[in-house]
Write a structure and sequence with these properties.
With about 375 residues, this protein is mostly beta strands. The protein folds into two domains: about 40 residues; about 325 residues, 6 Propeller (Neuraminidase), CATH 2.120.10.80. The protein is built from two helices and 31 strands. The strands form nine sheets. Strands 22, 23, 24, 25 and 26 form a five-stranded antiparallel β-sheet that branches. A four-stranded antiparallel β-sheet has the order 5-4-1-31, with no helix packed on it. The chain has a four-stranded antiparallel β-sheet with strand order 6-7-10-11, with no helix packed on it. The longest helix has about 35 residues. The protein is globular and about 60 Å long.
Length: about 375
Amino acid sequence: MAPTTRAASIWAAAHVFALVELCAVIAEHSGVVGACRLKRVCKATLQGAGEWLRTLPGLVVCGGCISRGPPVIFTRQVWRLDLGELRWERMPDLTCERAGHACCAVRRGVVVLGGHVVEQVGLEGTASVEVLGSGSSEAGETIFKALAPLSCGAIYSSAVVSIDEGESEQGQVLLIGGLVEDNNMASSAVRLVDLATGVCTAQASLLFPQGGGIENCVAGRLPDGRIVCAGTTRQSTAQGTAQVMEPPPHSSPSEASWQWRSLPNMSAVRWGGGGCVLSDGRFAVFGGMDASCNAISSSCEALTLDADGERWDVLSSMHEARHGCACAAMGGCVIVAGGVDSITAEVYEEGLGRWRQLPCSLPFDTELFRAGSAVI
């Protein structure tokens, strides 16, 4: 090859490499949907946007109900949405079929707590816990394995938040609210769970004037460490309530001293909506069963806590009404999937404030709801 030709080839290769890097930067600032659109422009954008999308975590959906029957059918299947390819990939199965369980990411793995299982006598609550992590079997395979059961007993429809671990061998989570198996009553209990031992240590309980509980709660940890919980109270009339767990004023911000404080009620009364923390630090809820009209809702709203006050603001509605859907935030977007009578998925672009349908439905026939979801 002549020197001039070789130099031209090197320059061209460097130019393409720089263009790919530039496209990756553009993709990062375009969000998930923008990056997916960018992949269709040319070869350089395909490679650059793909590189950025592959750096993002994926939405993991595990277990859930795939038929209300009769008979009721749960699944143990676990799937992860690959954002780079926009397709669902099969992961190792849960140890048992379950639905209505709490689920979150801990130490780059997935932990599943409680829920309902199908027994010969019907549906039963469970206290079982399982975790997916690297080297989780003796052969070094990545599988779900059973951990010590919850010392508080069987519970389902709880919210869970991963917290900063101390010296715990498996990590710790905060288990919030839920329904108790013994009496099917909503609980206001909040428990710190040591995943290595299953020991549940009582924390400050959720606020509820009549001493009852909050049903179908969703929760998330804000960037400043505070924890928001939103749900529904059953009184003479149902209310969509919200509260925040935070350190008392002028107090040391230790977990032991934190207390719950009431926040403005949600604008809608939602049963079984999704919830997560947005990239701008707001806590958002999506869909659910609207108690005012007893219909599945597509409406969404977000809670702002700042110096200007505390308020719920309406967000754009989803394309599809969803109840019991999986939900997670990543890359400046929120992805929701499934729900009662649904296997579709859609994404909310935070920067543009709009929803778009995703071309990758969940790999089930008719519906998947009450599944666990996490981001890894």
